Amino acid sequence: MTPPNRSHGKTRVTPTLKPRALMQDTPDYAHVWQAHIITLFPELFPGVLGASLTGRALQEGRWQLHAHDLRSFGLTKHRNVDDTPAGGGAGMVLRADVVGPAIEAVQARAQGRWPILYMSPRGRRFDQAMARDLSTCAGVTMLCGRFEGVDERVIEHYGITEVSLGDFVMTGGELAAQAMIDATVRLLPGVLGNADSTVEESHSAGLLEHPQYTKPAEWNGREIPPVLMSGNHAEIEKWRREMSHQLTRDRRPDLWARHEAGKDG
Questions:
Q1: Of the residues 141, 160, 185, which one is the last residue of a structural domain?
Q2: Block means of pLDDT (10 residues each) for the chain, length 265 residues?
Q3: In a domain, 192, yes or no
Q4: What is the pTM of this model?
Q5: Were both Cys, which of 111, 148, 170, 176 would link to 119 (CB 3.0–4.6 Å)?
């Protein structure tokens, strides 16, 4: 990895009882946003996060990613991590005495505001506001579930926030974690070339973004709206605002109702 630039190069030193080799492949750097993933499949990371803008920012040291193998905290020589549900039922549940030590090992190095999230279909819906809030934290720890989930006592003991991408169920939390990290990292300073890009896009102002166009001026009989070619910036801004309102009303009446309620408040 390319050494972090400017103030991003100071190595963080924190105590831990876990052997360093099991914890990370690269050192922590102070003042750099950190994402720590607890997963049974660390080989899935960085995945899409290693490409495009997030990947470049990762190489530049603007943020750091650490995937921790939950299996290394497993019990017995077989590294067991789960057991049958108390009270019976299908599937398996991740054990508290496996997940707990993994969280302890990661959080021992956490400094500043550092939430723990659990990828769960019953959790709070992830949105732009949460991404923006996470980007202001020192880092985040994400627990990726498998099977029937994790022992509820772990969630209660560590005050973990359950987060969901939507009303559907996936085989594990790894894809959800990558999506949430992507949405957060792009808000970090210096990751996007044009900071204004995060201002007008969908959900940043609680509304959907207006349509976008580029060359050619005419394609398959469809022309770019004339107002966008007029050079009149006041009219362009007015058109974009009207289109944003129209799209939000038509496609996301829930967002529009929230927007209108906010104006009355």
A1: 185
A2: 48 44 56 96 97 96 97 96 95 97 96 96 95 98 95 97 95 97 96 63 72 93 95 95 94 92 76
A3: no
A4: 0.81
A5: 176
